[in-house]
Amino acid sequence: MKNRDLAVYVAGGIIVVALLAFSVTRLARKPQLEAPVSVAPVTVTATTTTSSADDSTASVHRIPLADVRKLVEQNAVTLIDVRDADAYLASHIPGALHIPVQYLEGEIDYLPKGKPIVTYCT
Question: Looking at the annotation, which residues are catalytic?
């Protein structure tokens, strides 16, 4: 019984060290700075409007699905799925990056530069 417990602790320690090493290397990796790129603005239209007490999404542009499909086919946008892992695994748009909304702010420096970003959620 003691040898089994020791093996579990050692395996757990190895996993913790690996996770820490990954985190340190990820934090140490500095995003490469790119020259500013001039990108033509994407024309967007509202697909639906809903009234709510929270107007925090009033400045968020919504793009009709047909327009998103064209932009993705032209590789003209970076597509990010901000839903949780279960929703992403159940179904997602091929080629979309999966970054759950709670991690999005920490990943901004690592996102591809030079293209508009389109996110989608539930």
Answer: 121
